[in-house]
């Protein structure tokens, strides 16, 4: 299973397939979101919460995180409202998602106020894309995530795979270069379009993403299915590892003639690890 640092800093925790949002001011959803089966519940204090309800949402989320394991998306780094979020929640949230991260300084500002808390840094702007490696290299940054809707708005383009291919591939490369796990993909806003969600998740996985954010419970099972290894992939990985181990780590081939060397074996091991 892909991993990223846990809150205590010792060992690791599973890298989630699904992050399920719930607005921090919605009392009903704050209860129901934990029953869906998402890998991570992500309580939102940012875009889903109207400005006049920020204080109420923060108080409601504070009550939840005191007794339930979940992450919280705070408001934008270096803002007064984010400072209040961190004062209230940094001591109890399992991790924090930082929206609209443009620089390593944004991450460091949060890390100073939330020491030891894993940070998921969302890239949602042209500046953030160009600074992705520096952002991912900050020790407190546990994971990168992709915010396609805000990025499309910043670039003045339509949301779509061809239009965002460069940015998405750049995030995957930046995360790998910084020694961090594969980034997670952003939300798919068409709630009734299961086929579209599946296509977008499959495209993200082919690019090297692992996991995806969801804004409705019906999206979670599809995301889990897409980011689970198939029976065919697992069987291929077992054949590769068996051949590679039998060769003592030398370049070899499987019984059906596929060439195997160290990079191929490493890919196989990642599949078996989940």
Radius of gyration computed on alpha carbons: 19 Å
- CATH architecture type of the largest domain: Alpha-Beta Barrel
SSE order in H/E notation?
EEEHEHEHEHEHHEHHHEHHEEH
Question: Based on helices, strands and strand pairing, what is the structural class?
Answer: alpha/beta
Number of domains: 2
Low-confidence blocks of residues: 1-14
Distance between the termini: 4 Å
* Name given to the CATH homologous superfamily of the largest domain: Phosphoenolpyruvate-binding domains
Number of helices: 12
Can you lay out the helices and strands and say which pair or pack?
Elements: E1 3-5, E2 12-14, E3 18-23, H1 27-32, E4 40-44, H2 54-65, E5 71-73, H3 80-89, E6 95-98, H4 104-113, E7 119-123, H5 126-130, H6 132-137, E8 141-146, H7 148-155, H8 161-177, H9 194-207, E9 212-214, H10 220-226, H11 231-246, E10 252-253, E11 259-260, H12 262-273
Précis, in short:
With 274 residues, the protein is an alpha/beta fold.
Question: What are the defining features of this structure?
Answer:
274 residues, 12 helices, disordered N terminus, TIM Barrel, single chain, 11 strands, two-stranded antiparallel ribbon
Explain what you see.
This protein has 274 residues and is of the alpha/beta class. The chain has two domains: 3-226, Phosphoenolpyruvate-binding domains (TIM Barrel); 231-273, no CATH class. It has twelve helices and eleven strands. It has helices at 27-32, 54-65, 80-89, 104-113, 126-130, 132-137, 148-155, 161-177, 194-207, 220-226, 231-246, 262-273; strands at 3-5, 12-14, 18-23, 40-44, 71-73, 95-98, 119-123, 141-146, 212-214, 252-253, 259-260. It has a seven-stranded parallel beta sheet. The chain has a two-stranded antiparallel ribbon with strand order 1-2. Strand 6 (95-98), helix 4 and strand 7 (119-123) form a beta-alpha-beta unit. Helix 8 packs across helix 9 and helix 11 packs across helix 12. The radius of gyration is 19 Å and the shape is globular.
């Amino acid at each position: 299973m892909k991993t990223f640092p846990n809150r205590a800093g010792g060992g690791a925790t599973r890298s989630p397939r699904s992050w399920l949002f719930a607005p921090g001011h919605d009392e009903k959803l704050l209860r129901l979101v934990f029953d869906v089966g998402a890998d991570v519940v992500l309580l939102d204090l940012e875009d889903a919460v109207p400005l006049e309800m920020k204080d109420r949402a923060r108080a409601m989320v504070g009550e939840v995180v005191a007794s339930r394991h979940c992450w919280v998306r705070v408001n934008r780094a270096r803002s007064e409202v984010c400072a209040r979020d961190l004062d209230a929640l940094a001591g109890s949230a399992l991790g924090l998602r930082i929206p609209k991260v443009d620089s390593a300084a944004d991450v460091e500002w949060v890390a100073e106020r939330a020491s030891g808390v894993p940070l998921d840094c969302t890239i949602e702007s042209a500046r953030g894309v160009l600074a992705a490696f520096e952002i991912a290299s900050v020790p407190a940054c546990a994971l990168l995530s992709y915010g396609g809707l805000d990025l499309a708005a910043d670039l003045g383009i339509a949301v779509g795979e061809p239009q965002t291919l460069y940015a998405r591939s750049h995030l995957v490369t930046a995360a790998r270069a910084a020694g961090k796990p594969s980034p997670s993909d952003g939300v798919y806003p068409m709630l009734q379009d299961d086929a579209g969600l599946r296509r977008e998740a499959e495209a993200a996985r082919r690019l090297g993403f692992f996991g995806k954010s969801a804004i409705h419970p019906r999206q979670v099972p599809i995301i889990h299915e897409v980011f689970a290894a198939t029976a065919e992939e697992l069987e291929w990985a077992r054949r590769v590892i068996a051949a590679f181990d039998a060769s003592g780590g030398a370049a070899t081939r499987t019984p059906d003639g596929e060439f195997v060397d160290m990079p191929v074996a490493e890919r196989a091991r990642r599949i078996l690890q989940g």
